[in-house]
Amino acid sequence: MTRLRPHILLPVALLAGLAGVLATGRAADDKKAAAARPALTVTTERPATARLPLRLNANGNVAAWQEAVIGSESNGLRLREVRVNVGDVVRKGQVLAVFDADVVNADLAQARAALQEAEANAAAAQSDAQRARALQSSGAMSAQEVTRYITAERTAGARVAAARATLSQQQLRLKYTQVVAPDSGIVSSRNATVGAVTAAGTELFRMIRQGRLEWRAEVTAAELPRMKPGLKAQVKAASGVTVAGKVRTVAPTVDPQSRIALVYVDLPPSLAPDAPLKAGMFAGGQFELGASNALTVPNQAIAVRDGFAYVFRLNADNRVSQVKVSTGRRLGDRVEVTAGLPLDALVVVGGAGFLNDGDLVRPVAPAPAPAAPVAAR
User: Fold this and answer.
1) pTM value?
2) What tens digit of pLDDT does each residue of 79-99 get?
3) Which CATH number fits domain 56-65+213-291: 2.40.30.170, 3.40.1440.10, 3.40.50.2300, 3.40.630.30?
């Protein structure tokens, strides 16, 4: 094998070292150029002050405004007919059920006959009493006999009054054989069964008066002073439909166990069977407490990481700083920033979700909004 001489090996080693140094310098220059290159093109915007509505969220049960209990006023009569069922819409005075009236009609006829008999006896007693009064001054009849005739007249009159009272009672019994609705509304429950013999006071139906419902919202004791009668509320049904309501009254007491107070919100009456809210539902809603000024940024400017909200502030050297903020209310595409952001800060909007703290960016002006089309004449 041929060996290279030492005076030849030395220049070769120098050339190799020089090439390595040049390659290292070139890599460093490439790295600096890459580091100075902007990471992303972004749009920026300053926070704006907007007037946002104040709302208070709450949950509660939907209940009937008033639930009427319709019972039986007849005693010992057989239920012959039931004309309504659960969910039916009824009007005031509508017949809901009918009892068998044969026994009542017989008693009514007997009461009428007794009244006629009492009136006939009263007429005879009145004639006798009038003759006795005429003969009292002549002395043809003793005072004892005159008193007896006058007493008989009064007794007959009392029997007529008693007979009339009995007749009125039987007429009421006949009236009670028909169960009528005390008000317009929706039948919420039915216990009436055809053929059943019920006692007086037995519950036959329950009815939601006028179809009116109320939302019994639960609020804490700290939130209670903000609740006033007349406040507007929005109640959201399970189907997603929102129903407008108004605060009728606030409970005067707070539950000592849960420290929760009830706020009664009147809902618009609805007799339709497909109404979005039903009695017994659990629903959420909001109370509208007015409006206040707030510092807002676009929704795109908020980056949520590890459960916290951040914005990226653009510095003078076109690098961004990650700033932790606290958010609040939302209105459309604007988000309220309650803490952590100065009013004069320039925040990144477009592309904020792809940035890291210290990135170099290239800010550009946001694209103008498209003009509304002009209708052709």
Assistant:
1) 0.65
2) 999 999 998 999 999 999 999
3) 2.40.30.170
